[in-house]
Specification:
The complex is a heterodimer of chains A (109) and B (116).
Chain A lengths: L2 E3 L3 E5 L4 E8 L6 E6 L6 E6 L3 E5 L2 E6 L4 E6 L8 E8 L5 E3 L3 E6 L1
Parallel strand pairs in A: 2-11
Antiparallel strand pairs in A: 1-3, 3-8, 4-5, 4-9, 6-7, 7-8, 9-10, 9-11
Chain B lengths: L3 E4 L2 E4 L5 E7 L6 E7 L6 E7 L5 E2 L8 E7 L2 E6 L8 E8 L7 E3 L3 E5 L1
Parallel strand pairs in B: 2-11
Antiparallel strand pairs in B: 1-3, 3-8, 4-5, 4-9, 5-6, 7-8, 9-10, 9-11
Classes of the chains: A mainly beta (109), B mainly beta (116).
């Protein structure tokens, strides 16, 4: 079956760096997405990786290793507004998005 | 960037009535739109894939007669929850793709349905 694994919850301190990991097993691979979702709101797009390596976008970076079925989202200089759920999703060979359950990130002052 | 608008944001209805939710791509043509459902503290669950001019593709376990999807134009898809019951209360979200190559999905604001 298809499976996306990511930690349920993480806690970090304002100003610090946090890495949220995501491992996947899917039928085919057409890219991996990271989304941010604040409570009660729709997800917003953060990043898209289809080739191995690191993609940097401001304070957020996303890394992909297709051979390992592994990705991480790196958040630097954490701000209180970064408190949210972070969803990892993989697009399979049918271009369907397979979603992880999300990682709730709690930022403490 | 691309914008997807969803309406209404909140809806409360009586059990047995039908509710229509609209999803519009405001500045791009979306041949494919996706409808999701999210229960509290859970991840998004894909309900169906809506293709312009053809019938929607429903995920296993989703009742197509209960959740009617219409994608009549390249900028509008609608989800109608027919004969709604309290267990249909949920957060419904649509998304649209601006093009398969980019892979990026744009989400609507979501619609919170409460069935009394």
């Amino acid at each position: 079956g298809q499976n996306i694994d990511q930690p349920t919850e993480m806690t970090a301190t304002e100003g610090a760096i946090v890495q949220i990991n995501c491992t996947y097993q899917t039928s085919g691979f057409n890219g991996l997405f990271w989304y941010q979702q604040h409570a009660g709101e729709a997800p917003t797009f953060l990043s898209y990786n289809v080739l191995d390596g690191l993609e940097e976008k401001g304070r957020f970076s996303s890394f992909l290793s297709r051979s390992k079925g592994y990705s991480y989202l790196l958040l630097k200089e954490l701000q209180m507004k970064d408190s949210a759920s972070y969803l990892c999703a993989v697009m399979d060979s049918n271009y369907q998005l397979i979603w992880g359950a999300g990682t709730k990130l709690i930022i403490k002052p | 960037g691309a914008v997807v608008s969803q309406h209404p944001s909140w809806v409360i209805c009586k059990s047995g009535t039908s509710v229509k939710i609209e999803c519009r791509s405001l500045d791009f043509q979306a041949t494919t739109m996706f409808w999701y459902r999210q229960f509290p503290k859970q991840s998004l669950m894909l309900m169906a894939t809506s293709n312009e001019g053809s019938k929607a593709t429903y995920e296993q376990g989703v009742e197509k007669d209960k959740f009617l999807i219409n994608h009549a134009s390249l900028t509008l898809s609608t989800l109608t929850v027919t004969s709604a019951h309290p267990e249909d209360s949920s957060f419904y979200i649509c998304s649209a793709s601006s093009g398969r190559d980019t892979g990026e999905l744009f989400f609507g604001e979501g619609s919170r349905l409460t069935v009394l």
